[in-house]
Amino acid sequence: MSVIPVPDLLQEVGEVLLLDIILTDILTTIFDFENSSEEDNEIALIHLQETHSGKFMVNETQADEFVLLGLTDIPELQAVLFMVFLLIYMATVLGNCTIITVAWRDPHLHSPMYFFIANLSFLDLCYSSATVPKMLDHFLVERKTISFVGCTLQMLFFMSFAGTEALLLAAMAYDRYVAICLPLRYTGVMSQRACDWLVAGSWAAGMADSLIHTILAFQLSFCGSHTVNHFFCDIVPVLQLSCSNTTLNQIVLLALGALIGMSSFTLTLTSYVKIVTAVLRINTTEGRSRVFSTCSSHLLVVILFYVTIMSTYLRPGSSSELDQNSQLAVLYAVVTPLLNPFIFSLRNKAVKEALWRNPF
Question: In this predicted model, what pLDDT tens digit does every residue of 38-54 receive, in sequence order?
Fold first, then answer.
């Protein structure tokens, strides 16, 4: 005669008692229907549903891990992509660390412009590190999983860095506007304290925006598939997995995306429109070409960043669009952090001279 373990026996007894309670409530409700009005019956049904709807769903709504589909499931292509993205990540780390070190060590680069560039390089380093290492790991394993906590942290940091970068690009554009259009007031307006506040404000706003989205997202129930159609835990594909009502999440995503994304993009665009207008008044061709070269490089990165971000977050995500979103994400999550050091700094004459003065 086999003996049932005590914990299993207690669990079975508990389930029987729970079922008995629910059946008793249902029978009581049915009996009351015969002696109640239609309005009272509706209220009773709603109470019954709210009371017992979650009693057998506890285990289904707790996601211990998520599965990331990644960019491809072809083994040969995964090996190639691993080498490509590994080289990209190494170049990103090297380029951004170089800019940070040179801007810190060389006194000639202790100005607001290079202060912002160094902060952007640090931000890009964090931005890329939030997704690429996990993606590289998944190229080498068959089951591409990420824990619930890991998915939460990845979403939190990635969205924080994305929002911060949008605001920091706007601060950099404003810095160039003051330098070119208001040169006599530049020292007073762009003081070290003002620069510190602009950078700190960008980081604080980016983190606050990310916290709101992450908290709202992971209060939802995930009672179906836990397979994320992406190479990292981005908010749009994660929301697609929820069996809860995501209307509030979609509204907050659009509202805060418009607030941070559109406001920073408008400030950036307005600054450079005024810069171009001021440059066109310069008489010398050399002066115009030098400023236009800097502005065009910055605008290229700004357009690449904002177009891919807005096309992903400022529209409702459907299942047919998630594959396209993951491809767009490669541009702003992987390629942009690689290009920024070269576009903003390594093509800059002052940075090149600083590299010669401060060899590693």
Answer: 555 455 545 545 454 44
**Strand pairing report for 65-68 and 227-228:** parallel
* pLDDT bucket at 322, cuts 50 / 70 / 90: low
Within 10 Å of residue 204's Cβ, how many Cβ atoms? 13
Nearest CA to 203 out of 289, 330, 116, 308 is that of 116
Query: Hey, what are 114's tokens?
Result: 């290079």
Q: How far is CA 346 from the centre of its chain?
A: 27
What is the C-alpha separation between 328 and 307, in angstroms, rounded? 9
- Helices 263-279 and 148-181, axial angle in degrees (round to 10): 30
* Burial environment of residue 74 by CB neighbours within 10 A (0 to 12, 13 to 18, 19 or more): exposed
Report the SS3 class of residue 271: helix
32: three-class secondary structure by DSSP: helix
What b/e sequence results for 300-331 when a residue is b if at least 16 CB atoms lie within 10 Å of its CB, and e otherwise?
A: ebbebbbebbbebbeeebeeebbeebbebbbb
